[in-house]
Amino acid sequence: MKKLLMVAAVLALLAVPAVVAGCGNVELRGTALTAAEQSTMDALQAVNRSDTMDKPTAKSYLTENFKQWRYFVRAAKKDDAWGPKLAGE
């Protein structure tokens, strides 16, 4: 039983770095960063066009999509001020 617990503990310790290593690490350069910036601006245009939609869930979905793209680019650029703000922010 002790051997089984020891093996499980070792496996758990080996699995933690594999899972945690990618968290918060955003590496974009060159055309990949440009594409992410363009996707952010496209998402902003979608939010602006959603004002004419009848479904409030669509507008909230598009707003959240824009915020996620903006956060992704900000993390890659390491610049928390990058990008346009939505009304009310």
Description:
This protein is mostly helical and 89 residues long. The chain has one domain (2-77). The chain is 69% helix and 0% strand. The longest helix has 22 residues, at 56-77. The model has no long low-confidence stretch (mean pLDDT 82).
Please provide the ordered H/E string of secondary-structure elements. HHH
Mean pLDDT: 82
* Computed Rg: 20 Å
Provide a count of the helices.
3
Sheet with the most strands? none
- Helix/strand-derived category reads mainly alpha
* Distance from first to last alpha carbon: 56 Å
Pick out the low-confidence regions.
none
Strand content: under 5%
SSE topology sketch:
Elements: H1 2-20, H2 30-49, H3 56-77
Helix pairs in contact: 2-3
What's a quick, concise take on this entry?
The chain is mostly helical.
Summarize this structure as a short list of keywords or feature phrases.
single chain, 89 residues, mainly alpha
